[in-house]
Design goal:
heterodimer; A: alpha/beta; Peroxisomal Thiolase, Chain A, domain 1; 14 helices; B: mainly beta; 2 domains; five-stranded mixed beta barrel
Chain lengths: 424, 139
């Protein structure tokens, strides 16, 4: 049975607190250490404070501590290390959309009337494995019976999407690279980001290092010249290069959800969850289109419908740029630009912090970092901070900012979670 | 089709067993004729459970592709990697469905010379019996 009945929450839900660990590579920190760090950051940021004993339930996004750290059953460990036992916490796994889905479970748990105060978050400890090991773990989010045996990797599938986009539209390699340049410019302004440097900073460092060593100093004219040099920016899965790919990251995120009617007990600036959507999609070879993720279109239509807004009212978006092409495809799937217009919007600076359609002001997964199970909630935190006017140096200069959106993808579009958030 | 062939369960184990025997077997929905390269027991479009094995010709065109320089362990073991990238992508079969497949016989170091839309054929000789996966090459 297909139902088109409008989805409504039985109770409104708001975010009243948010915390992030530092994102990066931390050999001495395990998942629990990262999650405790995010929780302590949240405690410091909740206007009236919060004790672990005030929380009635939790939902934790975690993709694969099993393979990364040989640690299954991660949710009760987090409960114990936060001092929350016997409060129930449930782990949610939807690949890189794990915490996006965890947030949705938390929202529905409050809307059902069961709880008033719920912790949702995500964690991933990835750098414990070498790059090849991480590649294999991430590939296990693709179809192990029909995609992986064909030699497809995670970047490979997005590389194939990029090639299809280039064939169908005017997309070129520079459009992809410019997404990375833009996201690093934002990441430089994010004190939690893994890479708080622009691409130009990295280029200048390389030159300086060559000079120090008495080597020939590369003559890169600008960032694009640097990024088009295969020695500086090797191919991973043509047409994607190293700087088209989000990094491997350790990190954790959490937010405190409460029933909107009690939100003012915690803060005078709650952010309401105005619309939620989630959908599944099929492997790329079974997708209707090779240049779009159908789950993103369905999930965003649900979230817009519930919030009663359209893409034109969205003042900023955090989208799932696991690869540069994924940000361009997202900007089209979400209705910000017509199909094929996404790359031109990047060229024209429309998605920059100063543009009319800012995307990934946090630095995105590309520069902020992508601890996969933590990314969905980390995206929500950026929109929360922007809507509250607390994004520091990267705060948008838009006094009319009311709605923001998050777009969190699991695998290559097997899952997509979209949220529309509203300033109170 | 022999009774033995027709009675095999619709799953990936059967799909790859057939491939090792030199047969490229997809499935077909008896209700509406939809064909799938994957061995699905349920037609995801018609929702019918009435499926049958359907031999595929192995003729296809290249829909999109990538050339991979950072290879997974299984392909690194075959000599692929940074200095020897391989091509893989999505092919559209003559019968209609698409499927993921490695593309042999193309210069993966020069992807700009690989043309989408080119005619391909299934290459059974490239299939590794220990780790079977689909491989096509230019027709």
């Amino acid at each position: 049975m297909t139902t088109t009945r409008p989805r409504r929450l039985a109770r409104q839900v708001s975010i009243v607190g948010a915390g992030l660990s530092q994102f990066g590579a931390y050999p001495d920190k395990s998942s629990r250490d990262l999650f405790v760090e995010a929780f302590q950051d949240m405690q410091e940021n909740i206007d009236t404070g919060i004790s672990a004993t005030d929380i009635e339930a939790g939902y934790l996004g975690n993709y694969s501590a099993d393979l990364f750290e040989h640690q299954g059953h991660t949710a009760p460990i987090m409960a114990d290390w936060l001092g929350m036992t016997p409060t129930p916490i449930t782990r949610v796994e939807n690949a890189c959309a794990s915490s996006g889905s965890a947030l949705r479970e938390g929202v529905m748990a409050i809307a059902s009337g069961m709880y008033d105060v719920v912790l949702v978050g995500g964690v991933e400890k990835m750098t414990s494995l070498p790059t090849e090991g991480v590649t294999d773990v991430l590939a296990s989010a693709a179809d192990g019976l029909y995609e992986v045996p064909a030699g497809l990797t995670f970047p490979g599938i997005f590389g194939a999407i990029a090639k299809a986009h280039m064939d169908r539209y005017e997309t070129n390699l520079d459009h992809l690279l410019k997404v990375g340049v833009k996201n690093h410019e934002n990441g430089k302004l994010n004190p939690k980001a893994q890479f708080q440097v622009t691409i130009r900073d990295m280029m200048e460092r390389r030159k300086a290092r060559a000079e120090q060593r008495g080597e020939t100093v590369p003559e890169w004219a600008d960032e694009l010249d640097f990024l088009n040099d295969a020695r500086a920016n090797p191919w991973i899965a043509w047409p994607l290069r190293l700087y088209d790919c989000a990094p491997i990251t350790d990190g954790a995120s959490c937010v405190l959800l409460v029933a909107s009617e009690i939100a003012e007990q915690f803060t005078d600036k709650p952010v309401r969850i105005a619309g939620i959507g989630q959908a599944t999609g099929r492997p790329l070879h079974d997708a209707d289109e090779l240049t779009s993720l159908s789950a993103a279109k369905v999930a965003s239509a649900q979230a817009y419908e519930m919030a009663g807004v359209g893409p034109e009212q969205i003042g900023l978006a955090e989208v799932h740029d696991c690869f540069t092409i994924a940000e361009i495809v997202a900007s089209e799937d979400l209705g910000f630009f017509a199909p094929g217009e996404g790359p031109h919007a990047v060229d024209e600076g429309r998605t920059a912090r100063t543009g009319d359609r800012p995307i990934n002001t946090s630095g995105g997964l590309k520069a902020k970092g992508h601890p996969v199970g933590a990314s969905g909630v980390a995206q929500v935190i950026e929109v929360y901070k922007q809507l509250r006017g607390e994004a520091g140096e990267r705060q948008l200069d838009n006094p009319n900012l009311e709605f923001g959106l998050t777009h969190n993808v699991g695998g290559t579009g097997g899952t997509c979670v979209v949220n529309v958030l509203q300033r109170s | 089709m022999t009774t033995e062939t027709a009675s095999r369960p619709f799953n990936a184990a059967s799909f790859y067993e057939f491939l090792k025997e030199g047969k490229f077997m997809g499935v077909r929905c008896r209700e509406n004729g939809n064909v799938y390269a994957e061995a699905r027991p349920i037609d995801p479009v018609s929702h019918s459970n009435d499926m049958e094995w359907h031999e595929l010709s192995g003729r296809a065109t290249l829909s999109t592709f990538t050339c991979i320089s950072v290879a997974p362990a299984s392909l690194e073991a075959k000599g692929f990697g940074r200095n020897n990238p391989y091509c893989t992508g999505i092919v559209t079969l003559e019968e209609g469905p698409r499927i993921s497949a490695r593309i042999a016989g193309v210069d993966a170091s020069n992807p700009q010379n690989i043309r989408t839309g080119m005619a391909l054929r299934l290459d059974l000789s490239e299939i590794d019996p220990d780790e079977p996966g689909l491989v096509f090459r230019p027709a």
